[in-house]
């Protein structure tokens, strides 16, 4: 379901990255430039001086801006039209049963993966095993504690 050379994101994930980019461009980068200009005025020649730190901060911000722009420019939205999913794909929420306990996972791209919030990457072992499966399918995943078997009980 991925598109060649494109980065899968949910609409919410894309919005979050755009917010971060706007904050970096409109607030943090101008502040970093101002800090660098001010540090040059102080004339401190110490190797670990304010100017060096300001340059490093600006380089970090510029790198992050470039990275975010690349992701945003190459993104495609994955969470539209999943009301009657027949099989697991990017953007789907999958309910699985393991040892009588239900768990819900949201299958997302690697940029949005957040296992603590049940957002798993389609590149993770569990994500890979769930892709293209249908309701009732069993999937096995290798974990440090051994193999875990899940049964797919719902796909949204």
Uncertain residue segments:
none
Strand order of the largest sheet: 5-4-3-7-6
Instruction: Report the principal-axis shape.
Output: elongated
Average per-residue pLDDT, rounded, comes to 89
| Termini Cα gap | 16 Å
**Major β-sheet profile:** 5 strands, mixed
Care to describe what's here?
The chain is of the alpha/beta class and 156 residues long. The protein has helices at 11-42, 50-73, 125-130, and strands at residues 7-9, 75-77, 93-98, 101-108, 119-121, 138-143, 146-155. It contains 3 helices and 7 strands, in the order βααββββαββ. β3 (93-98) and β4 (101-108) form a beta hairpin. α1 packs antiparallel against α2 (50-73). The mean pLDDT is 89.
Feature tags:
3 helices, two-stranded parallel sheet, alpha/beta, 156 residues, five-stranded mixed sheet
Topology overview:
Blueprint: E1 7-9, H1 11-42, H2 50-73, E2 75-77, E3 93-98, E4 101-108, E5 119-121, H3 125-130, E6 138-143, E7 146-155
Parallel strand pairs: 1-2, 4-5
Antiparallel strand pairs: 3-4, 3-7, 6-7
Question: In a nutshell, what does this entry contain?
Answer:
Helices cover 40% and strands 25% of the residues.
């Amino acid at each position: 379901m991925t598109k060649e050379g494109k980065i899968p994101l949910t609409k919410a994930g894309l919005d979050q990255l755009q917010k971060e980019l706007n904050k970096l461009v409109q607030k943090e980068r101008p502040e970093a430039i101002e800090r660098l200009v001010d540090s040059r005025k102080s004339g401190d020649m110490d190797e670990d001086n304010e100017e060096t730190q300001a340059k490093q901060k600006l380089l970090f911000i510029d790198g992050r801006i470039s990275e975010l722009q690349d992701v945003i420019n190459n993104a495609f939205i994955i969470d539209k039209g999943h009301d009657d999913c027949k099989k697991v794909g990017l953007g789907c929420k999958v309910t699985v049963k393991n040892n009588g306990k239900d768990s819900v996972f949201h299958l997302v791209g690697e940029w949005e993966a957040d296992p603590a919030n049940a957002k798993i990457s389609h590149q993770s072992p569990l994500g890979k095993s769930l892709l293209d499966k249908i309701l009732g399918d069993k999937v096995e995943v290798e974990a440090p504690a051994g193999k875990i078997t899940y049964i797919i009980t719902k796909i949204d």
